[in-house]
């Protein structure tokens, strides 16, 4: 099996590889770019493994006229930017000591040692710049071919190196594994046994993983497994996985793209915007959607007050809550409301009214207009 793809032929990518090879060092694509390239999924990030140490990589880049950024130099990673494209160049490493959140590593010249410290077999595949694929664990290609997600070696050992790998197990299963295979029993058992370790992680890291998981085409089986093993309650206290598969069915029925915040609202939980350390914009949107699910506000008013996208999401979550289909007519009403313009301005009521009385009258007229289905015009409202 050979790796191919236009991303490999990019002038900047070839320049980084040639920079290392010309100095007598190895340059091997590794991880996600190899995995995605082999299964025909878009490659976004390019990781390169090498036996050159970080300081040597920086010197080589400078001599080649490329920009080197020490993004994680203490862990062996240098970002080399060539032709505007970033490349994460990381020295082969081996674990010396693990702490449950990160590991103390030592640089290595052995690809087998580097592969052994990675998380999953399908992520421990390497490829030379000309496309020759290397499988140091001897299991990565077979697992990728059958779309089986498995930890390298003992799952417990890999998890204790970094408890975030518990969430990555479910996220990668949702994105890359064949649902018919189910989740690997050994990995599932280890995640359940060590799920309390998630409490040692930062909210930002957990939130980032949860959003990536919920962005998968259908994360419902993985999230259900998280709930069954107790992982979900540690990551998002109070969350309930029952509404998610119904919401995803509604999304599919109406050809609506996946959205992690909408799906997060389906899970609920105790202050998820805080538990996952969401951005202010994400937190505001999540709170709005969650607050409106249980209201009786009609589709047109939702569209008028909150815009087409948020109103649509509220209606979808209402439908999921009652396990019913979403009526296309409701979406049409949302669209109408989203473009409706209230025909009265404050100037229409002045100088007869001012201050609180003006505000109260405007609100009264707006409510009458909304109740009419936006049919009352300016003349009718003012009369």
Question: What does the model show?
Answer:
The protein is an alpha+beta fold and 383 residues long. The protein has 4 domains: 1-145, Beta Polymerase, domain 2; 149-235, cca-adding enzyme, domain 2; 237-340, no CATH class; 344-382. The chain has 20 helices and 9 strands. The strands form 2 sheets. Strands 3-4-5-2-1-8-9 form a 7-stranded mixed beta sheet. The relative contact order is 0.06.
Tag the structure with descriptive keywords.
single chain; Beta Polymerase, domain 2; two-stranded antiparallel sheet; 20 helices; Bact_CCA-adding_enz_type3_sf; metal ion binding; CCA tRNA nucleotidyltransferase
What is the overall silhouette? elongated
CATH architecture of the largest domain: 2-Layer Sandwich
Q: What share of the residues lie within helices?
A: 40-55%
Number of domains: 4
Order of helices and strands: HEHEHEEEEEHEEHHHHHHHHHHHHHHHH
Distance between the termini: 78 Å
| CATH class descriptor of the largest domain | Alpha Beta
CATH topology of the largest domain: Beta Polymerase, domain 2
The helix-and-strand class reads alpha+beta
Main β-sheet, in a few words? 7 strands, mixed
Content of β-strand: 5-15%
Oligomer: single chain
Strand order in the largest sheet: 3-4-5-2-1-8-9
**How many β-strand runs?**
9
Mean pLDDT: 95
The radius of gyration is 27 Å
Number of discrete helical segments: 20
CATH superfamily membership of the largest domain = Beta Polymerase, domain 2
Keywords: Magnesium, Metal-binding, Nucleotide-binding, Nucleotidyltransferase, RNA-binding, Transferase, tRNA processing
GO molecular function: metal ion binding; nucleotide binding; nucleotidyltransferase activity; tRNA binding
Protein name: CCA tRNA nucleotidyltransferase
Pfam families: PolyA_pol, PolyA_pol_RNAbd
């Amino acid at each position: 099996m050979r790796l191919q793809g236009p991303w490999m032929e990019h002038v900047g990518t070839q320049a980084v590889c040639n920079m290392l090879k010309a100095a007598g060092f190895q340059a091997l694509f590794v991880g996600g770019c190899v995995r995605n390239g082999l299964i025909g999924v878009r490659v976004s990030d390019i990781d390169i493994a090498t036996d050159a140490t970080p300081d040597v990589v920086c010197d080589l880049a400078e001599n080649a006229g490329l920009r080197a950024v020490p993004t994680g130099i203490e862990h062996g990673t240098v970002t080399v930017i060539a032709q505007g494209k970033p490349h994460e160049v990381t020295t082969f490493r081996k674990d010396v000591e693990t702490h449950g959140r990160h590991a103390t590593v030592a640089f290595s010249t052995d690809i087998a040692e580097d592969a052994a410290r990675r998380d999953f077999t399908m992520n421990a595949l390497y490829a030379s710049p000309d496309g020759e694929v290397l499988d140091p664990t001897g299991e990565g290609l077979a697992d990728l071919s059958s779309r089986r997600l498995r930890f390298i070696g003992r799952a417990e050992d890999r998890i204790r190196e970094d408890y975030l790998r518990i969430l990555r197990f479910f996220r990668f299963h949702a994105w890359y594994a064949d649902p018919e295979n189910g989740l690997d029993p050994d990995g599932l058992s280890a995640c359940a046994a060590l799920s309390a370790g998630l409490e040692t992680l930062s909210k930002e890291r957990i939130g980032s993983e949860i959003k990536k998981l919920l962005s998968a085409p259908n994360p419902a089986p993985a999230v259900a497994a998280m709930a069954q093993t107790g992982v979900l309650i540690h990551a998002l206290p109070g969350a309930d996985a029952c509404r998610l598969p119904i919401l995803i069915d509604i999304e599919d029925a109406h050809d609506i793209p996946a959205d992690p915040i909408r799906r997060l609202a389906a899970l609920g939980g105790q202050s998820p915007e805080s538990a996952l350390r969401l951005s202010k914009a994400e937190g505001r949107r999540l709170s709005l959607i969650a607050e409106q699910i249980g209201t009786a506000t009609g589709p047109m008013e939702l569209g008028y007050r909150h815009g087409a996208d948020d109103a649509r999401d509220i209606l979808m979550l209402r439908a999921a809550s009652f396990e019913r289909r979403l009526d296309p007519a409701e979406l049409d009403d949302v669209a109408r409301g989203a473009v409706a313009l209230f025909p009265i301005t404050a100037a229409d009521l002045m100088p007869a009214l001012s201050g609180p009385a003006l505000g109260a009258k405007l609100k009264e007229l707006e409510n009458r207009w909304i109740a009419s289905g936006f049919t009352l015009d300016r003349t009718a409202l003012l009369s």
